[in-house]
Protein backbone atom coordinates (compact mmCIF):
# COMPACT_ATOMS: atom_id res chain seq x y z
CA UNK A 1 0.00 0.00 0.00
CA UNK A 2 2.87 2.39 0.78
CA UNK A 3 4.29 1.83 -2.71
CA UNK A 4 0.94 2.53 -4.36
CA UNK A 5 0.59 5.71 -2.30
CA UNK A 6 4.08 6.81 -3.37
CA UNK A 7 3.30 6.14 -7.05
CA UNK A 8 0.00 8.05 -6.97
CA UNK A 9 1.60 10.96 -5.10
CA UNK A 10 4.62 11.27 -7.40
CA UNK A 11 2.49 11.00 -10.54
CA UNK A 12 0.40 13.93 -9.28
CA UNK A 13 3.40 16.27 -8.85
CA UNK A 14 4.03 19.18 -11.19
CA UNK A 15 7.46 20.05 -12.56
CA UNK A 16 7.90 22.91 -10.06
CA UNK A 17 6.88 20.66 -7.15
CA UNK A 18 9.46 18.07 -8.20
CA UNK A 19 12.15 20.79 -8.26
CA UNK A 20 11.20 21.92 -4.74
CA UNK A 21 11.46 18.32 -3.55
CA UNK A 22 14.94 17.91 -5.10
CA UNK A 23 16.14 21.14 -3.42
CA UNK A 24 14.70 20.00 -0.11
CA UNK A 25 16.50 16.63 -0.10
CA UNK A 26 19.84 18.21 -1.07
CA UNK A 27 20.10 19.53 2.50
CA UNK A 28 20.38 15.99 3.83
CA UNK A 29 23.74 14.23 3.72
CA UNK A 30 22.55 10.70 4.54
CA UNK A 31 22.24 7.85 2.03
CA UNK A 32 19.20 8.77 -0.02
CA UNK A 33 17.70 5.51 -1.28
CA UNK A 34 14.32 7.25 -1.27
CA UNK A 35 15.61 9.74 -3.88
CA UNK A 36 16.53 6.85 -6.19
CA UNK A 37 13.04 5.42 -5.63
CA UNK A 38 11.53 8.83 -6.44
CA UNK A 39 13.40 9.04 -9.78
CA UNK A 40 12.54 5.43 -10.55
CA UNK A 41 8.80 5.94 -10.00
CA UNK A 42 8.85 9.27 -11.83
CA UNK A 43 10.32 7.68 -14.97
CA UNK A 44 8.20 4.49 -14.86
CA UNK A 45 4.69 3.57 -15.93
CA UNK A 46 2.32 3.80 -12.92
CA UNK A 47 1.19 0.20 -13.54
CA UNK A 48 4.72 -1.31 -13.52
CA UNK A 49 4.87 -1.95 -9.76
CA UNK A 50 6.78 -5.23 -10.09
CA UNK A 51 9.46 -3.65 -12.31
CA UNK A 52 9.95 -0.78 -9.85
CA UNK A 53 10.37 -3.20 -6.91
CA UNK A 54 12.86 -5.40 -8.82
CA UNK A 55 14.99 -2.45 -9.98
CA UNK A 56 15.06 -0.93 -6.49
CA UNK A 57 16.08 -4.27 -4.93
CA UNK A 58 19.03 -4.58 -7.33
CA UNK A 59 20.30 -1.11 -6.42
CA UNK A 60 19.65 -1.36 -2.65
CA UNK A 61 19.47 -5.08 -1.74
CA UNK A 62 19.54 -4.45 2.02
CA UNK A 63 16.91 -1.68 2.02
CA UNK A 64 13.20 -2.24 2.60
CA UNK A 65 11.18 -0.79 -0.25
CA UNK A 66 8.14 -0.59 2.06
CA UNK A 67 9.94 1.60 4.63
CA UNK A 68 11.63 3.65 1.89
CA UNK A 69 8.33 4.39 0.15
CA UNK A 70 6.71 5.35 3.47
CA UNK A 71 9.53 7.79 4.21
CA UNK A 72 9.36 9.11 0.65
CA UNK A 73 5.65 9.88 1.05
CA UNK A 74 6.40 11.71 4.32
CA UNK A 75 9.15 13.86 2.75
CA UNK A 76 7.01 14.75 -0.27
CA UNK A 77 3.99 15.69 1.86
CA UNK A 78 6.22 17.89 4.06
CA UNK A 79 7.33 19.76 0.92
CA UNK A 80 3.76 20.11 -0.35
CA UNK A 81 2.57 21.47 3.02
CA UNK A 82 5.24 24.17 2.86
CA UNK A 83 4.15 25.09 -0.66
CA UNK A 84 0.46 25.20 0.26
CA UNK A 85 0.92 27.21 3.46
CA UNK A 86 1.23 30.53 1.61
CA UNK A 87 -1.60 29.93 -0.86
CA UNK A 88 -4.37 27.96 0.85
CA UNK A 89 -6.64 29.69 3.37
CA UNK A 90 -7.36 26.40 5.20
CA UNK A 91 -3.65 25.81 5.79
CA UNK A 92 -3.24 29.42 6.94
CA UNK A 93 -6.02 29.03 9.52
CA UNK A 94 -4.55 25.88 11.04
CA UNK A 95 -1.08 27.41 10.99
CA UNK A 96 -2.54 30.33 12.96
CA UNK A 97 -3.82 27.89 15.60
CA UNK A 98 -0.45 26.15 15.77
CA UNK A 99 1.37 29.48 15.99
CA UNK A 100 -0.80 30.55 18.95
CA UNK A 101 -0.06 27.22 20.69
CA UNK A 102 3.70 27.71 20.28
CA UNK A 103 3.50 31.26 21.65
CA UNK A 104 1.44 30.05 24.60
CA UNK A 105 3.94 27.27 25.40
CA UNK A 106 6.69 29.92 25.49
CA UNK A 107 4.63 31.99 27.97
CA UNK A 108 3.92 34.71 25.40
CA UNK A 109 0.26 34.82 26.39
CA UNK A 110 -0.59 38.23 24.98
CA UNK A 111 0.93 37.42 21.59
CA UNK A 112 -0.84 34.03 21.59
CA UNK A 113 -4.18 35.70 22.35
CA UNK A 114 -3.70 38.23 19.52
CA UNK A 115 -2.92 35.38 17.10
CA UNK A 116 -6.14 33.63 18.17
CA UNK A 117 -8.18 36.76 17.42
CA UNK A 118 -6.58 37.19 13.98
CA UNK A 119 -7.26 33.54 13.15
CA UNK A 120 -10.88 33.85 14.35
CA UNK A 121 -11.50 36.83 12.09
CA UNK A 122 -10.18 34.90 9.08
CA UNK A 123 -12.20 31.80 10.02
CA UNK A 124 -15.38 33.88 10.27
CA UNK A 125 -14.67 35.61 6.94
CA UNK A 126 -14.01 32.33 5.12
CA UNK A 127 -16.81 30.49 6.98
CA UNK A 128 -14.81 27.78 8.75
CA UNK A 129 -16.96 27.16 11.86
CA UNK A 130 -14.72 24.37 13.20
CA UNK A 131 -11.66 26.63 13.28
CA UNK A 132 -13.74 29.52 14.62
CA UNK A 133 -14.96 27.27 17.45
CA UNK A 134 -11.38 26.23 18.25
CA UNK A 135 -10.37 29.89 18.59
CA UNK A 136 -13.15 30.41 21.16
CA UNK A 137 -12.04 27.24 22.94
CA UNK A 138 -8.47 28.56 23.05
CA UNK A 139 -9.71 31.93 24.32
CA UNK A 140 -11.64 30.24 27.14
CA UNK A 141 -8.53 28.23 28.04
CA UNK A 142 -6.49 31.44 28.01
CA UNK A 143 -8.97 33.20 30.33
CA UNK A 144 -9.09 30.20 32.66
CA UNK A 145 -5.27 29.99 32.84
CA UNK A 146 -5.20 33.69 33.80
CA UNK A 147 -7.90 33.25 36.47
CA UNK A 148 -10.41 35.21 34.33
CA UNK A 149 -8.48 38.43 34.92
CA UNK A 150 -10.68 41.47 34.12
CA UNK A 151 -13.39 39.20 32.67
CA UNK A 152 -17.02 39.72 33.73
CA UNK A 153 -19.55 36.95 34.25
CA UNK A 154 -21.56 38.29 31.32
CA UNK A 155 -18.54 38.28 28.99
CA UNK A 156 -17.63 34.69 29.95
CA UNK A 157 -21.16 33.40 29.26
CA UNK A 158 -21.23 35.32 25.97
CA UNK A 159 -18.03 33.59 24.76
CA UNK A 160 -19.36 30.19 25.87
CA UNK A 161 -22.66 30.70 24.02
CA UNK A 162 -20.88 31.76 20.82
CA UNK A 163 -18.78 28.59 21.00
CA UNK A 164 -21.93 26.52 21.59
CA UNK A 165 -23.72 28.06 18.58
CA UNK A 166 -20.73 27.29 16.39
CA UNK A 167 -20.86 23.65 17.52
CA UNK A 168 -24.53 23.56 16.46
CA UNK A 169 -23.53 24.87 13.03
CA UNK A 170 -20.81 22.24 12.81
CA UNK A 171 -23.32 19.53 13.77
CA UNK A 172 -25.76 20.78 11.11
CA UNK A 173 -23.02 20.65 8.44
CA UNK A 174 -22.01 17.19 9.71
CA UNK A 175 -25.60 15.95 9.19
CA UNK A 176 -25.49 17.25 5.58
CA UNK A 177 -22.15 15.54 5.02
CA UNK A 178 -23.44 12.26 6.49
CA UNK A 179 -26.43 12.09 4.15
CA UNK A 180 -24.37 13.06 1.11
CA UNK A 181 -21.74 10.44 1.98
CA UNK A 182 -24.38 7.72 2.43
CA UNK A 183 -25.92 8.64 -0.93
CA UNK A 184 -22.52 8.48 -2.65
CA UNK A 185 -21.69 5.19 -0.93
CA UNK A 186 -24.90 3.49 -2.08
CA UNK A 187 -24.63 4.80 -5.63
CA UNK A 188 -20.93 3.98 -5.96
CA UNK A 189 -21.48 0.39 -4.81
CA UNK A 190 -24.72 -0.13 -6.75
CA UNK A 191 -23.89 1.93 -9.85
CA UNK A 192 -26.27 4.37 -11.51
CA UNK A 193 -29.93 3.69 -10.75
CA UNK A 194 -31.41 1.58 -13.55
CA UNK A 195 -34.81 0.58 -12.11
CA UNK A 196 -37.60 1.85 -9.84
CA UNK A 197 -36.73 -0.85 -7.29
CA UNK A 198 -33.21 0.53 -6.92
CA UNK A 199 -34.58 4.07 -6.69
CA UNK A 200 -36.84 3.14 -3.77
CA UNK A 201 -33.76 2.18 -1.71
CA UNK A 202 -32.75 5.85 -1.61
CA UNK A 203 -36.08 7.18 -0.30
CA UNK A 204 -34.93 7.27 3.34
CA UNK A 205 -31.97 9.51 2.47
CA UNK A 206 -34.07 11.88 0.37
CA UNK A 207 -36.67 12.26 3.14
CA UNK A 208 -33.96 12.81 5.78
CA UNK A 209 -32.31 15.49 3.64
CA UNK A 210 -35.64 17.27 3.11
CA UNK A 211 -36.31 17.21 6.86
CA UNK A 212 -32.84 18.57 7.58
CA UNK A 213 -33.33 21.52 5.22
CA UNK A 214 -36.89 22.19 6.44
CA UNK A 215 -36.10 22.12 10.16
CA UNK A 216 -32.81 24.02 10.00
CA UNK A 217 -32.63 26.66 7.27
CA UNK A 218 -29.29 26.48 5.45
CA UNK A 219 -27.79 29.95 5.79
CA UNK A 220 -24.09 29.15 5.67
CA UNK A 221 -22.21 28.65 2.43
CA UNK A 222 -21.21 25.09 3.43
CA UNK A 223 -24.80 24.05 4.24
CA UNK A 224 -26.18 25.53 1.00
CA UNK A 225 -23.40 23.89 -1.01
CA UNK A 226 -23.95 20.45 0.55
CA UNK A 227 -27.73 20.67 0.07
CA UNK A 228 -27.32 21.45 -3.64
CA UNK A 229 -24.57 18.84 -4.06
CA UNK A 230 -26.84 16.19 -2.53
CA UNK A 231 -29.72 17.06 -4.85
CA UNK A 232 -27.56 17.33 -7.98
CA UNK A 233 -25.81 14.02 -7.26
CA UNK A 234 -29.15 12.33 -6.59
CA UNK A 235 -30.91 13.62 -9.73
CA UNK A 236 -27.91 12.84 -11.95
CA UNK A 237 -27.67 9.25 -10.78
CA UNK A 238 -31.40 8.51 -11.02
CA UNK A 239 -31.56 9.86 -14.57
CA UNK A 240 -33.54 13.06 -13.84
CA UNK A 241 -31.22 15.22 -15.92
CA UNK A 242 -33.55 18.20 -16.39
CA UNK A 243 -33.87 18.57 -12.60
CA UNK A 244 -30.13 17.94 -12.19
CA UNK A 245 -29.34 20.72 -14.67
CA UNK A 246 -31.46 23.21 -12.68
CA UNK A 247 -29.74 22.25 -9.42
CA UNK A 248 -26.27 22.42 -10.98
CA UNK A 249 -27.09 25.88 -12.33
CA UNK A 250 -28.11 27.01 -8.82
CA UNK A 251 -24.90 25.50 -7.44
CA UNK A 252 -22.84 27.30 -10.07
CA UNK A 253 -24.52 30.62 -9.20
CA UNK A 254 -23.76 30.05 -5.51
CA UNK A 255 -20.08 29.41 -6.27
CA UNK A 256 -19.78 32.46 -8.51
CA UNK A 257 -21.27 34.67 -5.80
CA UNK A 258 -18.85 33.28 -3.20
CA UNK A 259 -15.61 32.93 -5.16
CA UNK A 260 -13.59 34.06 -2.14
CA UNK A 261 -14.90 31.06 -0.14
CA UNK A 262 -13.87 28.42 -2.67
CA UNK A 263 -11.07 26.00 -1.87
CA UNK A 264 -7.71 26.22 -3.60
CA UNK A 265 -7.93 24.54 -6.07
CA UNK A 266 -11.73 24.91 -6.47
CA UNK A 267 -12.72 21.27 -7.05
CA UNK A 268 -16.34 21.89 -6.00
CA UNK A 269 -16.72 24.61 -8.63
CA UNK A 270 -15.12 22.35 -11.24
CA UNK A 271 -17.51 19.57 -10.20
CA UNK A 272 -20.50 21.89 -10.67
CA UNK A 273 -19.37 22.91 -14.17
CA UNK A 274 -18.76 19.26 -15.04
CA UNK A 275 -22.25 18.39 -13.75
CA UNK A 276 -23.84 21.07 -15.93
CA UNK A 277 -21.95 19.91 -19.03
CA UNK A 278 -22.77 16.26 -18.31
CA UNK A 279 -26.48 17.12 -17.97
CA UNK A 280 -26.40 19.13 -21.22
CA UNK A 281 -24.71 16.14 -22.88
CA UNK A 282 -27.42 13.76 -21.66
CA UNK A 283 -30.23 16.11 -22.71
CA UNK A 284 -28.51 16.64 -26.10
CA UNK A 285 -28.38 20.43 -25.59
CA UNK A 286 -25.02 20.64 -27.34
CA UNK A 287 -25.54 24.24 -28.47
CA UNK A 288 -25.42 25.41 -24.82
CA UNK A 289 -22.10 23.73 -23.99
CA UNK A 290 -19.69 26.41 -25.24
CA UNK A 291 -20.73 28.92 -22.55
CA UNK A 292 -19.72 26.51 -19.76
CA UNK A 293 -16.63 25.27 -21.61
CA UNK A 294 -15.46 28.91 -21.56
CA UNK A 295 -15.99 28.95 -17.79
CA UNK A 296 -13.74 25.88 -17.59
CA UNK A 297 -11.04 27.77 -19.50
CA UNK A 298 -11.19 30.50 -16.83
CA UNK A 299 -10.12 27.91 -14.23
CA UNK A 300 -6.94 27.16 -16.18
CA UNK A 301 -4.87 29.67 -14.18
CA UNK A 302 -1.27 29.54 -12.95
CA UNK A 303 -2.41 30.15 -9.35
CA UNK A 304 -3.76 26.58 -9.29
CA UNK A 305 -1.63 23.39 -9.14
CA UNK A 306 -0.57 21.79 -12.39
CA UNK A 307 -2.52 18.57 -11.77
CA UNK A 308 -5.71 20.63 -11.36
CA UNK A 309 -5.06 22.58 -14.56
CA UNK A 310 -4.43 19.29 -16.37
CA UNK A 311 -7.80 17.96 -15.18
CA UNK A 312 -9.52 21.20 -16.26
CA UNK A 313 -7.95 20.86 -19.71
CA UNK A 314 -9.04 17.23 -20.04
CA UNK A 315 -12.65 18.01 -19.07
CA UNK A 316 -12.65 20.93 -21.52
CA UNK A 317 -11.29 18.76 -24.36
CA UNK A 318 -13.78 16.01 -23.49
CA UNK A 319 -16.84 18.23 -23.89
CA UNK A 320 -15.42 19.95 -26.95
CA UNK A 321 -15.11 16.50 -28.57
CA UNK A 322 -18.64 15.55 -27.49
CA UNK A 323 -19.99 18.78 -28.98
CA UNK A 324 -18.03 18.44 -32.25
CA UNK A 325 -18.93 14.76 -32.68
CA UNK A 326 -22.62 15.51 -32.12
CA UNK A 327 -22.49 17.97 -35.06
CA UNK A 328 -20.39 15.49 -37.12
CA UNK A 329 -17.61 18.09 -37.35
CA UNK A 330 -15.11 15.23 -37.33
CA UNK A 331 -12.18 16.98 -39.01
CA UNK A 332 -12.29 19.58 -36.19
CA UNK A 333 -12.36 16.74 -33.63
CA UNK A 334 -9.24 15.14 -35.11
CA UNK A 335 -7.51 18.54 -35.38
CA UNK A 336 -8.21 19.12 -31.67
CA UNK A 337 -6.79 15.68 -30.76
CA UNK A 338 -3.68 16.22 -32.90
CA UNK A 339 -3.06 19.70 -31.46
CA UNK A 340 -2.60 18.26 -27.96
CA UNK A 341 0.36 16.01 -28.75
CA UNK A 342 1.00 12.40 -27.78
CA UNK A 343 1.54 12.42 -24.03
CA UNK A 344 -1.00 14.93 -22.72
CA UNK A 345 -3.68 12.29 -22.06
CA UNK A 346 -1.35 10.31 -19.77
CA UNK A 347 -0.46 13.31 -17.60
CA UNK A 348 -1.95 12.93 -14.10
CA UNK A 349 -4.01 9.99 -15.36
CA UNK A 350 -4.81 8.85 -11.80
CA UNK A 351 -6.47 12.11 -10.68
CA UNK A 352 -9.91 11.31 -12.15
CA UNK A 353 -10.02 7.83 -13.70
CA UNK A 354 -13.65 8.04 -14.84
CA UNK A 355 -12.91 11.20 -16.84
CA UNK A 356 -9.87 9.42 -18.29
CA UNK A 357 -12.15 6.63 -19.55
CA UNK A 358 -14.54 9.17 -21.09
CA UNK A 359 -11.69 10.94 -22.84
CA UNK A 360 -10.30 7.73 -24.35
CA UNK A 361 -13.81 6.71 -25.42
CA UNK A 362 -14.66 9.99 -27.16
CA UNK A 363 -11.34 10.09 -29.00
CA UNK A 364 -12.03 6.53 -30.19
CA UNK A 365 -15.58 7.55 -31.12
CA UNK A 366 -14.24 10.42 -33.28
CA UNK A 367 -12.18 7.98 -35.35
CA UNK A 368 -15.04 5.45 -35.41
CA UNK A 369 -17.39 8.03 -36.92
CA UNK A 370 -14.69 8.72 -39.53
CA UNK A 371 -14.66 4.94 -40.18
CA UNK A 372 -10.97 4.82 -39.24
CA UNK A 373 -11.54 1.62 -37.27
CA UNK A 374 -7.82 0.88 -36.78
CA UNK A 375 -7.15 4.18 -34.96
CA UNK A 376 -10.41 3.89 -33.04
CA UNK A 377 -9.42 0.42 -31.84
CA UNK A 378 -5.97 1.73 -30.90
CA UNK A 379 -7.50 4.25 -28.46
CA UNK A 380 -9.94 1.67 -27.05
CA UNK A 381 -7.05 -0.75 -26.42
CA UNK A 382 -5.07 2.02 -24.72
CA UNK A 383 -7.96 2.67 -22.35
CA UNK A 384 -8.37 -1.01 -21.49
CA UNK A 385 -4.63 -1.54 -20.98
CA UNK A 386 -3.92 1.61 -18.96
CA UNK A 387 -7.11 2.03 -16.92
CA UNK A 388 -8.84 -0.21 -14.41
CA UNK A 389 -12.31 -1.28 -15.60
CA UNK A 390 -15.09 -0.64 -13.04
CA UNK A 391 -18.29 -2.70 -13.15
CA UNK A 392 -20.47 0.20 -12.02
CA UNK A 393 -19.18 2.80 -14.48
CA UNK A 394 -21.37 3.07 -17.56
CA UNK A 395 -18.48 4.61 -19.50
CA UNK A 396 -16.61 1.31 -19.03
CA UNK A 397 -19.62 -0.50 -20.48
CA UNK A 398 -19.76 1.93 -23.41
CA UNK A 399 -16.03 1.42 -24.08
CA UNK A 400 -16.27 -2.37 -24.00
CA UNK A 401 -19.36 -2.29 -26.26
CA UNK A 402 -17.57 -0.08 -28.79
CA UNK A 403 -14.68 -2.54 -28.61
CA UNK A 404 -17.09 -5.35 -29.57
CA UNK A 405 -18.48 -3.30 -32.47
CA UNK A 406 -14.94 -2.60 -33.70
CA UNK A 407 -14.11 -6.32 -33.69
CA UNK A 408 -17.21 -6.86 -35.85
CA UNK A 409 -16.40 -3.99 -38.23
CA UNK A 410 -12.82 -5.25 -38.66
CA UNK A 411 -14.03 -8.80 -39.32
CA UNK A 412 -12.21 -10.32 -36.32
CA UNK A 413 -14.83 -12.96 -35.54
CA UNK A 414 -12.65 -15.10 -33.23
CA UNK A 415 -12.04 -12.21 -30.83
CA UNK A 416 -15.65 -11.06 -31.19
CA UNK A 417 -17.36 -14.08 -29.60
CA UNK A 418 -14.78 -14.22 -26.83
CA UNK A 419 -15.27 -10.51 -26.04
CA UNK A 420 -19.08 -10.85 -25.92
CA UNK A 421 -18.77 -13.76 -23.46
CA UNK A 422 -16.20 -11.86 -21.37
CA UNK A 423 -18.44 -8.77 -21.34
CA UNK A 424 -21.44 -10.70 -19.98
CA UNK A 425 -19.29 -12.46 -17.39
CA UNK A 426 -17.65 -9.25 -16.15
CA UNK A 427 -20.75 -7.03 -15.92
CA UNK A 428 -23.23 -9.83 -15.12
CA UNK A 429 -26.15 -10.85 -17.35
CA UNK A 430 -28.65 -9.78 -14.69
CA UNK A 431 -27.28 -6.20 -14.73
CA UNK A 432 -27.51 -5.61 -18.49
CA UNK A 433 -29.79 -2.86 -19.82
CA UNK A 434 -32.21 -3.60 -22.66
CA UNK A 435 -30.07 -1.64 -25.13
CA UNK A 436 -27.05 -3.82 -24.27
CA UNK A 437 -29.05 -7.02 -24.74
CA UNK A 438 -30.39 -5.85 -28.13
CA UNK A 439 -26.91 -4.90 -29.38
CA UNK A 440 -25.23 -8.14 -28.29
CA UNK A 441 -28.03 -10.34 -29.66
CA UNK A 442 -28.08 -8.39 -32.91
CA UNK A 443 -24.38 -9.11 -33.41
CA UNK A 444 -24.81 -12.78 -32.49
CA UNK A 445 -27.61 -13.18 -35.06
CA UNK A 446 -25.31 -11.79 -37.74
CA UNK A 447 -22.43 -14.15 -36.98
CA UNK A 448 -24.53 -17.21 -36.00
CA UNK A 449 -27.89 -17.47 -37.77
CA UNK A 450 -28.99 -20.43 -35.62
CA UNK A 451 -29.22 -18.40 -32.39
CA UNK A 452 -32.82 -18.56 -31.00
CA UNK A 453 -34.91 -15.55 -30.00
CA UNK A 454 -35.15 -13.56 -33.24
CA UNK A 455 -38.87 -12.87 -32.76
CA UNK A 456 -38.29 -11.37 -29.30
CA UNK A 457 -35.43 -9.27 -30.65
CA UNK A 458 -37.64 -7.92 -33.46
CA UNK A 459 -40.30 -6.97 -30.91
CA UNK A 460 -37.68 -5.16 -28.81
CA UNK A 461 -36.34 -3.33 -31.87
CA UNK A 462 -39.84 -2.03 -32.60
CA UNK A 463 -39.70 -0.18 -29.27
CA UNK A 464 -36.36 1.57 -29.90
CA UNK A 465 -37.78 5.09 -29.64
CA UNK A 466 -39.24 4.24 -26.24
CA UNK A 467 -35.87 2.91 -25.08
CA UNK A 468 -34.07 6.06 -26.23
CA UNK A 469 -36.29 8.14 -23.95
CA UNK A 470 -36.02 5.79 -20.97
CA UNK A 471 -34.32 7.62 -18.08
CA UNK A 472 -32.21 4.56 -17.27
CA UNK A 473 -31.24 3.52 -20.80
CA UNK A 474 -30.24 7.08 -21.71
CA UNK A 475 -27.42 6.98 -19.16
CA UNK A 476 -25.60 4.53 -21.46
CA UNK A 477 -26.95 5.71 -24.82
CA UNK A 478 -25.75 9.29 -24.26
CA UNK A 479 -22.20 8.03 -24.88
CA UNK A 480 -23.09 6.23 -28.12
CA UNK A 481 -26.40 5.34 -29.77
CA UNK A 482 -25.80 1.60 -29.84
CA UNK A 483 -29.40 1.08 -30.97
CA UNK A 484 -28.79 3.06 -34.18
CA UNK A 485 -25.78 0.97 -35.20
CA UNK A 486 -26.61 -1.82 -37.64
CA UNK A 487 -24.14 -4.67 -38.20
Give a nutshell description of this structure.
The chain has 487 residues and is mainly α. The chain is built from 25 helices and no strands.
What does it look like?
By secondary structure, this protein is mostly helical. Among the domains are: 2-85, no CATH class; 89-151, no CATH class. It has 25 helices and no strands. It is globular. The mean pLDDT is 85.
What is the gyration radius calculated from CA atoms? 27 Å
Task: Classify the helix fraction into a percent range.
Answer: over 70%
- Please, what is the average pLDDT? 85
Overall number of strands: 0
Structural class from helices and strands? mainly alpha
- How far is it from the N-terminal to the C-terminal residue, by CA? 45 Å
- The arrangement of helices and strands along the chain is HHHHHHHHHHHHHHHHHHHHHHHHH
Unreliable stretches (pLDDT < 50, length at least 5) are: none
Q: Tally the helices: what do you get?
A: 25
> Which shape, going by the Cα principal axes?
globular
The quaternary organization reads as single chain
Largest sheet: none
Strand content: under 5%
Amino acid sequence: MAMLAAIRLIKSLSGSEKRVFKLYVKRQSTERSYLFLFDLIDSSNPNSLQTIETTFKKKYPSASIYNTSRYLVKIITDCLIQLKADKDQTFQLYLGLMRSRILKERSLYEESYNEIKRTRLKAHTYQYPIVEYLTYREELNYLSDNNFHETTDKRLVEIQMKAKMLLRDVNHIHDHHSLFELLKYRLIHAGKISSKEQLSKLNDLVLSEMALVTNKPANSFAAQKLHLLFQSFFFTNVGEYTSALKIFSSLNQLFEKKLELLDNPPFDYLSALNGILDSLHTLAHFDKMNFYIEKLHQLHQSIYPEYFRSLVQKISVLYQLISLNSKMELSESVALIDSLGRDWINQYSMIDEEKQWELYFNIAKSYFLLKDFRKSHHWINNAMLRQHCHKNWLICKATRLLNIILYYERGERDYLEYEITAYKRFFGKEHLLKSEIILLKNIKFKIRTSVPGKAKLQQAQNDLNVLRKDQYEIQLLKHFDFLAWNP
